[in-house]
Amino acid sequence: MDELKNNFGKIAETPSVSIKKQHSQFLRVIIPSSLIIIAVLVSLPYAYSYYQKNTSAQLSQYNVQKQLDYLLSYPDVAEYAWMRSLNPIAKAIEGSIVWSQAEHDGVMKFKNLPATSKQQQYHLRIYDRNTTEAFSTAVFQQGKFMQDSRIVAFKANSKVKSPYKFILSLESIQGVEEEQILLRAQP
User: Fold this and answer.
1) Which residues contact 51 (CB under 8 A, 6 or more apart)?
2) Distant-in-sequence contacts of 49-58, Cβ < 8 A, 24+ apart
3) Domain end call among 54, 71, 88
4) pTM for the complete prediction?
């Protein structure tokens, strides 16, 4: 009888030890898997945001390219190469500006335009022979994801009758820092 109790006790203990081992193995698999799933779920919004920015930027560039192609069909269109200032920021920038006087439309083309910080923006001004003031025409920021090549469309104020220079500067959004003239184009 004692032997039966001992055997019964061993039988009763065996499943308990097996369950603990299975539970321990289960936890070793489930916890790392859960952490991986959580990490993926947390990173999805960031990945989507990056994808959306990239896709919308590409779509925008496609639309501006179509506008440029349309603009180039006008007989009065002229294209002027950007001339760099001595500012070190401008040393690698290349490109041109396409302008239609009849339409008061234009497109700026850039290669190697440096990214702006969140506190900076690029600003295009057009100078007219008939007035002493400059016409603010376009303000934009440059993201890191489009540094190789970019085109920016602009519509000038109808008061611009006889433009004689286009100036692109880098400036602080708050207007705290002095603007830095980077590029200039002249007919």
Assistant:
1) none
2) 53/143, 53/145, 54/145, 57/143, 57/145, 57/146
3) 71
4) 0.65
Do 38 and 52 lie in a common domain? yes
10-residue block means of pLDDT along the chain (187 residues)? 54 57 68 71 57 50 80 88 95 94 90 91 93 88 73 86 93 83 94
Amino acid residing at 4: L
